[in-house]
Amino acid sequence: MSTNKEALLHLILPEGILDYFEVTKVNSQKEEIWIYLEELNNYKQPNSSDKLISKGFFPETLINDFPIRGKKVYLMVKRRRWLNMRTQMVVTRDWELVAKGTRYTQEFAAFFKEISR
Which pTM was predicted? Predict the structure, then answer.
């Protein structure tokens, strides 16, 4: 971590997300915080030397995360897609940011599950 801002982001955002995404914008409103994340252009296919080129993004995905200081937190995530130049197939990273069947981060969904017991 090179700055205090980055250290703070690592504490606020889901674990490991900053390894693959960059924060492009933060919008704090009266009762909400919107954090915009864009996937970095750094994907390498495991066990492959195939050349990949970025082919844009999927539509943004809205994810609910833990509240901060009484404000709802929304993550707007833009996932990238790449074209494998050898196979001409589109490839993406397999993400598990969202708990199955929800729009919550896995950590936030686990929290809800625990308190509902």
Answer: 0.79
